[in-house]
Specification:
Keywords: Membrane, Transmembrane, Transmembrane helix. The chain is mostly helical and 145 residues long. It is 80% helix and 0% strand. The longest helix is centred in the first third of the chain and has 28 residues. 24% of the residues are buried.
């Protein structure tokens, strides 16, 4: 019986699919972060972009088109986190987006400590992308048929 369990665990790790508890933790994070990026981060950039640009500090002026593009990317990433086939790609995209946000905070806004939160999010998104990496190959295989 021990051999069968070891074999099952080994094959689970080879395919790159997380275990039961890890899967639940990942889905909880994906849903919470997805809702955060849809409602609190990307949503306001799409609903009230003019207010955000008017209230921005002088050293952090972002063109309206770029602000809307970032909002669309955040909302799309938030939705993608909650779609099983897209979760790894969405997490990878949001990881890149949050690293760029941290760079903006550190170098353009001159507030390097404000860049810590986006870097923590980037690490979480990178972990989600790594754990969900099997969905990328599944998606590639389903598209190539």
């Amino acid at each position: 019986m021990t051999t069968a369990n070891s074999t099952a665990e080994f094959s689970n790790n080879v395919t790159g699919r997380p275990g039961k508890v890890r899967n639940r933790v990942l889905w909880t994070l994906q849903i919470l972060l997805g809702l955060f990026f849809i409602i609190a981060s990307g949503g306001p950039k799409l609903v009230i972009p003019n207010t955000l640009t008017e209230n921005a500090p002088e050293n952090l002026t972002i063109p309206l088109g770029l602000l809307i593009f970032i909002g669309v990317a955040e909302v799309a990433g938030g939705i993608g986190l909650m779609v099983p086939r897209l979760s790894a790609l969405a997490a990878a995209g949001l990881s890149v987006l949050t690293v760029l946000a941290a760079g903006t905070q550190a170098f353009i806004a001159d507030k390097p400590l404000m860049g810590i939160f986006p870097l923590v999010l980037a690490a979480i998104f990178a972990w989600i992308a790594y754990e969900r990496r099997a969905t990328i190959t599944d998606l590639r295989n389903s598209l190539s048929r």
